[in-house]
Amino acid sequence: MLDPIDAVTRLRNALAATTLPDEAAAEAHAVVNQFDDYILPRLTNLDAPLLAVIGGSTGSGKSTLVNALLRERVSNPGVIRPTTRQPVLVANPGDAEWFNSPRVLPGLTRSHGAGNEQSTTLRIVETPNLPQGLSLLDAPDFDSIDDRNRALATQLLAAADLWIFVTTPARYADQLVWNFLHDAAARGIEVVVVLNRLDEASAETVPQDLRRMMAEAGLEDATVFTVPFVVDLGNNQETQATDEFLPAELVAPLNTYLHELAQDTAARRAVAGKTVAGAVEGALAKVDAAVVTRQRREDFANQLDATIFDIYKDAHRHIIDATSDGQMLRSEVMDRWQDVVGTSDVFRGFERWFSQTVDKVGSFFSGQPAPLREVETELESGLHAVIVDAADTASSRSWSRIGVMAPQLRENADPALARASQDINEQAAKLIREWQSGILERIQNTAGEKRQRARVMSLGLNMLTVALMLVVFSTTAGLTGAEIGIAGGSAVVGQKLLETIFGEDTVRRMAADARRDLDQRLDHLLRAERERYHVLTDPLFEGASAESIRNAAAEARTAIDQRFPGTLAPAPTQANTPALPATTEDVNESFQAGTLRGLFDQLRGTFSPQSRNDGSAE
Fold first, then answer.
1. How far is residue 532's CA from residue 526's CA, in Å, rounded to a whole number?
2. What SS3 state is found at 169?
3. Where does the record place the G domain (predicted)?
4. Does 612 map to a domain?
């Protein structure tokens, strides 16, 4: 059997560790507070004193009611709005240790002694007038004009074992009252409603109408008490009761109910179990909503990553195409190459041609004019231009896509992301140098036989390096001898020259290895360029994932259901998060059609400052 405390703690920690858009983050924070303030302390000790939170709208007479129940002035009523600022928790001295400990409402600082209406600390008052087993907490008005008071009232109500709602004939139908009561019904919490200041005229219709509304809200089993209007106090009943209490007989039914509950251990335990199970169920519903939001956040970040990934994949493919279909071998390059090796009588007397080629190349080293270096420079420059252009184009396209898919995200991004890295020229040059070094090393390592080494030394490593580059860049790479004859021209001379030294199969393998090495180096460079955009999507992945929260919630549900059988509704059917609209090649068209604009609207707030699967570019 799963330990409910451990399971709920794991869920609490997962929810606290995730990141969400602002509104969802506030909701998740409230759930975490409820775990800390009530659910975990209550699961730890079901027999601990019950906490009855007395809530109500401004001027409903909560504080006067508390003082009347205790026959002691522990809370300060008044006409200044908001009337209740500092929450007051009243407990029997025998229960004070539980409420003074950080186990209950750990986020609130405790205070004792005289009240301070400007403070939001939790004031603890000990009195023997309240029996052990039950405490009363006079909460700030939940419709307070003070935002902090309203938030505190909501937090305290979420920590209650029992809700005592105080209202009046003038305020009982207020929508805000019913928002809280609907929440209570959804949680299955024990609710007591006190209809205060009930005059004779209202007594004929209001109680009946109140019960009707409660039944419609699913609270037909809730207990309702009425407190008559005191004529002698008139409209100033609340303020004039500061020096005297409401007559004891007016609050006697409510007082009796509370005392009997406090003294009945089994009843207290039943209330605590029912309420904590209901609180968990309500929390789980909010966790499910947070998971949906988090999943959409992750899905969007993944889609943005995938979009940029595809752009850089296209850039890589463009470089591959440009360096394998002969585009690199412009007429200027081939003219200079022909000056180096010549092509006359190549296929009629190759040994004689080879000797002539050696002589031709030798002239380069003896200081006679030879354009070998010019060929090498042309190839390097062409490859460099293709790489830089592809990186710049990919950056520009990525920046445009981000602007369409997530304008707020781009608004806060570094404009440098609109271009390739500042040192892209140096990176491309380094890539080419290292690739050429790899070719040179490959030629040296392949020349194992004495005759091969002699021919390599005769021609020179630079000559053979350029020859292999030409093979890689030409469409004839890897062709057989017969096919070379068909292809003809200067582009195949480099391949034939290499084959004379190493053999046809070896040259084919060398060219394939050189191509693979170039592709891998391009992949590394473009991946680094693409990963610059992770600065935009990484924050969307921070914290606990949707999957981890979902799993923790399932464990918590199982553990609570085992501990309190039949108290939780069946888990909702797991529905897949709707797929986000796919981007199209023409982003402007998509934006005008509303596809991507709608996507951004759905995810508004995802890109707050608070707020992957990695892969290669190819």
1. 10
2. coil
3. 53-196
4. no
